[in-house]
Amino acid sequence: YDRLPGQGPGHFVALSGPAGIGKATLLRRFLGLMCDNPAIRLFKSSADAVETKTPYYPWKKLFAGLLGVDSNNKATQFTTRACENSLANLLEERFEKHSVLNDVLPTLFPEEMGEHKLSAIDRRTKLHDMLASILNAVASKSPVCIVIHACQFCDNSSMGLLRSLISRCAGVMTVMTTRSESGYSELQDLEKGMLVMKHFPLPPLSQELSIQLVRKTVGQEVDQAISDVVMDRTQGIPLYCIEFARLVKESPSGALSELPDTITGAVLLRIDRLLPAPKLILKIVAVAGRDVRASLIYDVVPSQFENEHLQSELEYLVSVDILMRDRTGYCFRHEMVQEVVLGFLTFSQKRFLHKRIANFYVNSENQVSPATLALHFELAAQGMEASELDVPACKRALWFLKLAAEEAMKANAMEDANRYLARSHDLMQMLPTNSDPFDLEMALGLVDGSEALLRQVLDHFRCNSEISIQNIEKAVLGAGSDVLDLASPRADTPRAHWQAQITLDQARFEARSIASAASTLGAEALSHSALALDAALVDAAFLDSSSTTTVYAAVQKVKTDFIDLSGFINCNTSSTTPTTFLARPPTTFVAVDLLNTSSQVPPNGHVNTSTSIVEDMTQPDGSKQSGGGHVETASSDGGAVDGGTEMRQARVVDDSQLVDQMMNDQLFHTGTCET
What pLDDT is attached to residue 201? Predict the structure, then answer.
């Protein structure tokens, strides 16, 4: 790096080795040395097991750092303007606003239309060209070092971009770590005059070094018998040596009988020795992945922590080298420990945590990929048996799988896109036959998954539909109405017939408006009944006296379907526009939660899982639905039976039992895990 910026060959260095061999430790030492040279611009990112199929996931942080913008927040007009200003200063006249940058940068550049719209292959090529120009422009001002950790979790698009950039950017040093040597071997054909490539496979420690590491961790000399056992069980893997040494240090007697046979047992035994609160935190972080914020942990189990208490527990876990600070949140110091914790959570515990985490992320201001949301909702939806399927979570997973497939296709990652579509197909096969009056997935598609915008759309739709139904009733059934008078003797006069025809056209317009809006939102039952009303009104125009009864019945059917739809929306979304229609026969109505019974989208768009998504809803018999997520079922004799309180209480008890179980279970001693 003594050469001039942007000159000389690029350098590519790969560190490979099994989990626990010391790649992250060596990388931290390297970054410490690089930071001593202020002339070098250093950018680090890491792939994540949760984001394995998210296109360009590690590159999003890197390029946001190159431009000096925050990659954690969702793309907004503010982040778009910040990126635009940075790119204009960096590239000057070469800067081009193009939608391909949205795939990596937090920008909202408009999509190209018509002849300017690119195919998937051309789009990927264009993106690689533009990102290479950005990186070369930065490297022309000062030497650049890019570090990507845990590349075994990179998606195909990220590895393709890595291959493209290291072969086209001079004056850039790229360092990657991976568990497998295959990641490096795939790039070996790029070693030419303008690229210097080095591969460092990390070997296990020798017996002498392993014993030194154990003694250093324990802080004193240890018996030769213990050293031999530790060496035999760790095989020279540094992380294993440290974990076993800590068990020896924490054991009152240091007896060999207390040492587990495997590294998995060592990790589990160490976690078992924690107090309940930090144990619960570790399990939440294991499911959530990287950059887990305290606000997420608090939202998942709000009854277990206070803010100050939670922060102190997190800092304690950092002090004992289990967690570390990651950007604005926390993550496991080593992904192998995370995998061990995750592997020994029961199925019901994982499902509970995935659902709570998905509920938090879906309305978070942070940038969360559709692939991540799809994964959490998918795992929250699936039960041990088909009857345990969480239908609302399943529909949410379908929606985000669709978005993830579209993202992958834009990046020309057709293999990943096909996987998303295959998962979507499997979920669709699990869904029961839809008898709901409203297609939530279709409605979410209209608003790009925004809960706040969906609430506004549904409120507007219900208000307009109710006005239209009232206008139809006034025209058809009200005193002095003219539509049904078409079949009466007084309709023989030209003026009376003309007036009735105008009223008929107005009523038909209202019916068609309801049908169109309902069909757009996926409310097929209401749409069909509105079209049937339109057909009945047409029959009335031909002076068919038998059409009177048909029109009456069609109007009542539209009202009934609208009331059903309103009740379903109230119970399954945050839209709570009341209806004044009470003339509905007593029926049984069962509510299905959209996210969970303890999730509500308040006006500011943030989720608070301590409250309910279901608001009060007036029932036909005058009773009200409570905010606790249940419906008072109207019986045939007009009485109300509280059919949801018991269910909700049971669900709350189940959740509470799961939380207590996660805080107090002994993973190593039980050695069992639910399949």
Answer: 93
